[in-house]
Amino acid sequence: MRPLLITVGSRGDVQPYLALARGLLAAGHRPVLAAPRRFEPLAAGHGVEFVPLNDEMLSLQDSAKGQGVRAAITAARSVKPMMHRLLDDQAALTARQADVVVYHPKSLGGPYIAERLGVPALAGLLLPLYLPTSAFASPILPVRAPHALNRASWRIASAIEAPYRGIVRAWRAGALGLESGFRPLADLVREGGVLHAWSPHLLPAPDDWPASAHPTGFWTMPADDGWTPPERLARFLEEGEPPVYIGFGSSVSGDPEALTATVLEAVRLAGRRAVLATGWGALRPGTERDGVLVIEEVPHDWLLPRVAVAVHHGGIGTVAAALRAGVPQVVRPFMGDQPFWADRLHRLGVAPAPVTGRLTAERLAAAIGDAEKSAPAAARALAGRVSAEDGVAAAVARITGSR
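Above: the chain sequence. Below: its structure as tokens.
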């Protein structure tokens, strides 16, 4: 088969698709991965054929990060022209042959590329987003909904897409020549095929989902046994007891310096060593104190098995890595689906209650202590079940059976 995989966004949106491409390649297929230009070296390192897509929006996010409200407003005005260019790059994919398209909804163009090619389209979802259920509310709903409104809450996915619908409609007609029969992305996802790329041990399919929507397991890259840690990180880990890992990825607190100060004080109150990952700027690097190592980033699958507790924002990529590592978790959610996953981890016993509301050093220190006392056994048990899954193989089987 010649599967075409289309994804946009940060590394957390791209890496699962790269893992899927590797799995398809290993199974004897010829996948092509279309993703933001900056990830071309990553794909090349794994032998995956790559088509670069416009990544101006990632660059815009980088430049606006931490620059305040005015910069954010200015950045927002640039989004629509960038979206036009991103969609035009996707339109060029129709010159290729493909048997199936697997797409991230953020791409906006994925199902229409499949329509133009006349092949099946499968939405590859890293979180529940489009298939309604009465079992729980949409994970991206910004407020808690009464149980009776669970199914209705899933309409929010359509609302997120709505501002770009006019752009997509015009692009579909102009660039793809598909003038009639336009249908919104949300409708196409709900009625088409879906690959849910998370572990059923984290979130099983509710009873009102079809069997085809049952989660495959995480799409995970194989462990990079050849990765070598920086000397100062290796030395820090060897010099004392396993530290606490603290990293909030690209989440935005509004005041990275204050968040960093709170985290450092919490570590001191907990009496623990710590590795702080600054990531995309949620934490700001500063003067390191005794027992604290500040790094920009490090592969989670390498580091997390070597720590005592993982403190993070609740992004699904970090959640998955911490589950595989069998390490207790503390979640300080900021936005989007993060509160949803934080609640799931607490219900499974691998994390204390999420640290929501006003964050103080005392509350964070207490949560770290609770995680160390109450969660290790559950975390180890769940790690065994999650690690036994092969989500990529399950997804490959569904893709190859989609024709």
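The chain has two domains: 3-196, 231-387.
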